[in-house]
C-alpha cells in the first residue's frame, strides 16, 4: 500500500501545551492511516491497514519534513528516545520521530531547529501525525515539498481529539 495523500491543517483555536506561545502550529499526516478511534473522533475517515511499504514511505516523508525544517537551524532531539532494533540503537532523528508516531509505548518525541529554537516537529501517542510549530513562516510550502508528487490537501479536524 502507498501513501496517496498528505493532509495538513493549522491549529488556530487550541494551543498545545508543548508549543511556544505565539508560534503557529500545524498538524500533518498521511492518507490512509490505520483504523484509529482518535482520528475517527476528530472527523477523519480515510483508513486502511498499512503495511511495510507504507511504513517505508512514511519514514521517508518524515525525513523530508526534517529536511524542510532544517532551514530554521540545526536539528536537536529535545525529548523522546532513539529506538533500539535488535540490540542496536538507531540514532537518527527520523527513527525517533517515527517510533513515537507508530508505537504509543514511546515517549513523545520533539526535535527542535536552531539555537534558540525557531521551529519544532513533534510526534506522540502512536499516531502517524506530525505536529509542526514555527516561530515565523508558513508550513504549507514545506509540507508540499516533503510530499513530493503526492496530492496535498488542507483538512481541518477536531484537534482537541488528537492533542
Class of secondary structure makeup: alpha+beta
How many domains make up the coordinates? Answer: 1
- Quick one: biggest sheet? 7 strands, mixed
Principal-axis shape equals globular
Question: Can you walk through the features of this model?
Answer:
It is a single chain. The longest helix has 18 residues. The two termini are 27 Å apart. By secondary structure, the protein is an alpha+beta fold. The protein contains four helices and nine strands. Strand 7 and strand 8 form a beta hairpin. The chain has one domain. It is 26% helix and 26% strand.
Summarize the structure.
With 163 residues, this protein is of the alpha+beta class. Helix content is 26%, strand content 26%.
Amino acid at each position: 500500500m502507498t501513501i496517496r495523500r498528505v493532509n495538513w491543517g493549522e491549529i488556530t483555536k487550541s494551543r498545545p501545551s508543548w508549543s511556544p506561545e505565539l508560534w503557529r502550529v500545524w498538524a500533518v499526516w498521511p492518507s490512509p492511516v490505520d483504523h484509529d478511534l482518535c482520528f475517527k473522533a476528530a472527523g477523519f475517515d480515510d483508513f486502511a491497514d498499512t503495511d511495510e511499504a507504507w511504513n517505508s514511505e512514511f519514514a521517508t516523508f518524515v525525513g523530508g519534513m526534517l529536511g524542510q525544517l532544517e532551514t530554521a537551524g540545526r536539528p536537536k532531539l529535545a525529548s523522546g528516545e532513539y529506538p533500539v532494533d535488535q540490540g542496536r540503537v538507531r540514532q537518527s532523528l527520523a527513527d525517533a520521530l517515527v517510533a513515537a508516531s507508530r508505537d504509543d509505548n514511546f515517549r513523545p518525541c520533539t526535535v527542535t531547529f536552531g539555537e534558540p529554537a525557531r521551529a519544532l516537529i513533534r510526534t506522540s501517542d502512536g499516531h502517524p501525525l506530525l505536529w509542526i510549530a514555527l516561530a515565523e513562516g508558513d508550513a504549507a510550502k514545506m509540507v508540499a515539498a516533503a510530499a513530493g508528487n503526492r496530492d496535498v490537501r488542507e483538512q481541518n479536524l477536531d484537534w482537541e481529539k488528537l492533542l
